[in-house]
Amino acid sequence: MQLPPALHARLAAGPGAAEPLPVERNPAAGAAPFRFAARLVRFPRDHEFFEDGDVQRHLYLQDVLTQVAEMPERPRVPEFTCQVAGCCQVFDALEDYEHHYHTLHRNVCSFCKRAFPSEHLLDAHILEWHDSLFQILSEKQDMYQCLVEGCTEKFKTSKDRKDHMVRLHLYPADFRFDKPKKSRGPALQKAGANTAAEALEVDGEQSEGDAMEVCSEHVAPSSAPVGERRTYSQRSVSDIFLKLSLNVCFILRVLGLTLGWHSY
Amino acid sequence: MWRRRQGFLRPVVCGVEELRCRRREREAALRKARREQQLVSKRLLREDGPEETGGERVAAVLGEAEVHQFLRLAQRGTEEKEREQALVSLRRGLQHPETQQTFIRLEGSMRTLVGLLTSNQALLQLEAARCLHELSHSEQSTVAEACLPATSYLLTYLSGHSSDFIELCLYTLGNLIVESEAVRRQLLPQGIVPALAACIQSPHVAVLEALGYALSQLLQAKEAPEKIIPSILGSSLLQHILQLLQPGPKLNPGVAVEFAWCLHYIICSQVNNSLIISHGALSTLGLLLLDLAGAVQKIEDAGLELLACPVLRCLSNLLTEAAVEDMGGQLQLRDERVVAALFILLQFFLQKQPSLLPEGLWLLNNLTANSPSFCTSLLSLDLIEPLLQLLPVSNMVSLMVLTVLCNVAEKGSAYCQRLWPGPLLPSLLKMLACSDTEVVAQSLELLQLLFLYQPEAAQAFLQQSGLQALERHQEEAQLQDRAHALRQTALHG
Question: What range(s) does the C2H2-type domain occupy (chain A) (predicted)?
Answer without folding.
Answer: 82-105, 109-130, 146-169
